[in-house]
Write a structure and sequence with these properties.
Layout (H helix, E strand, L loop, with lengths): L5 E7 L6 H9 L6 E7 L6 H11 L3 E5 L8 H11 L4 E4 L10 H10 L6 E4 L1 E4 L6 E4 L10 H6 L10 E4 H6 L12 H12 L3 E4 L6 E4 L12 H18 L8 H15 L8 H11 L5 H14 L5 H21 L13 E2 L5 H4 L2
Parallel strand pairs: 1-2, 1-4, 2-3, 5-9, 6-10
Antiparallel strand pairs: 4-8, 5-8, 6-7, 7-11
Helix pairs in contact: 7-8, 8-9, 11-12
């Protein structure tokens, strides 16, 4: 039986309390031909001590520290791991997530039975604290590949970080590395860049080879709406936009509308700022297919929503909300994300607690 080498790449920062459980789930895999590269982002707790116990006992583990001159963050760590990897396949994994005991074996066999793809995508199941408390699938993997790009743009990421099993040659040849220096949304942006150049992949919705994502109710950077994080997200969107503009898909009206919706989502979380109007003008010049009336209306709605300290402004805002309901939502519901399937599909499997070691 062919046994390709799988490179598992894990960025870590101050996970002394959880990284051992993650590494135990990797050691327990029935598929043995893997290397696990753990890249430390500058931990100040006992993370290094925990990981080094695994390195001493199993040569398949590699522990490295992000060089001080490299930009801090998980994206840099993933890039370091990818450059060091030697596998036929690459899998990015988070430092607190878990692998069911047969996960790698099942994924490898499916990949070998479906050769010729740039990557294979598998399901992820969310759990709280213990694996018995699992609830939702990450997203719907049954839609056609051609729909995935727009799903990602609509903030409904089709797969989790742990979902793809990448052909390493594809990533290296296409120079596909994570954008560094951004605190959140880096996986989302990375996968959008991938989809700009490839629809040559296959998805497996079966839960039997899903990874397990640990969900922290009170600890997630993606819920951090500090001004600095929001501004970094805007920078990331502009970086992504520059990539999209190089492809014909940018000239589709639906794509530009989704980009407008994305900008609106992020800008709406900013406080009143002096540069906001200049920002909207810049976006309007770029997204030339978005009707000016929509730019005008949604900009106006945000303007008055953020300025309700006066009675007149509150009256105007209520009138604008009426316009939104009776007319503009029917044109393009910029604030509506109800059609997203992200975290809305219940998990049906009951196998993991007994299978997991």
């Amino acid at each position: 039986m062919t046994t390709p080498l799988i490179s598992i790449i894990i960025p870590v920062y101050n996970r002394a309390n959880l990284i051992g459980e993650t590494l135990n789930s990797i050691v327990s895999q029935t598929y043995a031909n893997w290397e696990c590269i753990v890249v430390d982002d500058g931990s100040t707790d006992a993370t290094a001590t925990v990981i080094n116990t695994y390195v001493k006992n199993d040569e398949r583990f590699v522990y490295t520290k992000r060089p001080s001159e490299s930009i801090k963050g998980a994206p840099s760590c993933r890039n370091i791991g990818l450059k060091q990897s030697k596998g036929d396949y690459v899998m990015f994994f988070d430092s607190d997530d878990l692998m069911p005991i047969n996960m790698l074996n099942q994924r490898v066999q499916l990949a070998l039975n479906n050769k010729g793809y740039d990557f294979c995508v598998f399901q992820t199941i969310r759990f709280y604290d213990t694996i018995e408390n699992k609830d939702c699938l990450w997203n719907d993997l049954t839609q056609p590949n051609t729909a995935d790009f727009k799903s990602f743009l609509n903030l409904s990421p089709v797969w989790h970080t742990s979902g793809p099993l990448w052909n390493r040659t594809f990533l290296i040849d296409k120079n596909l590395f994570y954008t560094e220096g951004v605190p959140s949304w880096q996986d989302w942006e990375f996968h959008i860049r991938v989809l700009l150049i490839s629809t040559n992949y296959v998805k497996f919705p079966d839960e039997s080879c899903a990874a397990l994502q640990r969900f922290h109710k009170n600890e997630t950077i993606n819920k951090n709406n500090s001004i600095s994080v929001i501004e970094k997200r805007l920078d990331l969107i502009f970086i992504m936009l520059s990539e999209i503009k190089q492809h014909s898909v940018f000239d589709e009206k639906e794509v530009q509308l989704l980009l407008f919706k994305l900008f609106y989502f992020v800008i709406s979380k900013l406080p009143i700022t002096s540069f906001e109007q200049d920002l909207w003008k810049n976006i309007q010049n770029i997204l030339y297919l978005v009707p000016k009336i929509d730019f005008w209306f949604w900009n106006l709605l945000l303007f008055f929503r953020k300025r309700q300290n006066k009675i007149l402004n509150r009256i105007v805002f209520r009138f604008i909300l009426t316009l939104k309901m009776i007319y503009f939502n029917k044109r393009f519901a910029v604030e509506n994300y109800k059609n997203r399937s992200w975290y809305k599909i219940k998990s049906n499997t009951s196998k993991f607690p007994s299978q997991f070691i």
